[in-house]
Amino acid sequence: MIQKNKKATTWTLVFTILAVLVLVIIGIALAYKYGIDIFPWARNIPTPGNQPINSTETIAFAYDLALNDVEYFDGATRYPFKDGKIEVSDYIFDKTPINDAFYNLYYLPVRTEKRIALAPGFGKNIYPQDIYNRLPQLDACILAIFTYDDVYNKRGDVIVKLVARSKNPDCKNSRSYGDLSVSLSGEAKIKLVKSDLATLSNYYTTLKSSDVTKIITEVNIWRDSVLSNSITIPYYNAETKITEQAAVKAERNGLYLIAFLTKK
Known about the structure:
Elements: H1 2-33, E1 60-64, E2 69-73, E3 78-79, E4 85-88, E5 91-94, H2 95-106, E6 114-117, H3 129-132, E7 138-145, E8 158-164, E9 178-182, E10 188-192, E11 205-206, H4 213-223, E12 230-237, E13 242-253, E14 256-260
Antiparallel strand pairs: 1-2, 1-14, 2-3, 4-5, 5-12, 6-7, 7-8, 8-9, 9-10, 10-11, 12-13, 13-14
């Protein structure tokens, strides 16, 4: 008798759970049909995958690489966010996650160091003659990008170390004959090695871009190499009442990264 009561209780529990699930499914279906937002918290959970935006309007975002600041871009003019949001067509965009997405795309990745062979005679117009005459043949090692502003460098500046020509790819442990900094706009400056060929100046000297053309070109390629990755932009779809996301490619335009969510 006790065993039969246990079986009856088990089946009662199973049927109860199934009945509740059916009622929940019916309730959600009716809510969706009549546009009732029964789970407002769920709108903040992005839908997995890529959900392209379908709009006749140009929807894009421009990210200032130096200021770490994003604005809405209609293809011609940039507009700041109002109260941290902007609404276009049926889409609502929050500034903070979009700004973070651009920063993470460009400044978060660790780029691989790159060694460049410089032509004979490099540095003749840069170093004092007595120092230049004692320099070895130089290579340029692109080491790192600044992700913040400090006393001497700005966000986006790239540090390049001048080292002696060698088959050893290691750069960090090689003696520096000059530390360059190349800005986002292509301006270059250097901490020159002193006459002892062992220590560097504490201050930067501005360089003519024509004296370091190859280095600036290689730095730009190295710096923008991360743009082969996509950027994921989250947005709230007022029609579906859920947060979705679009994965697109960003392109460099001067001091800005531009990401178009709709076709140009």
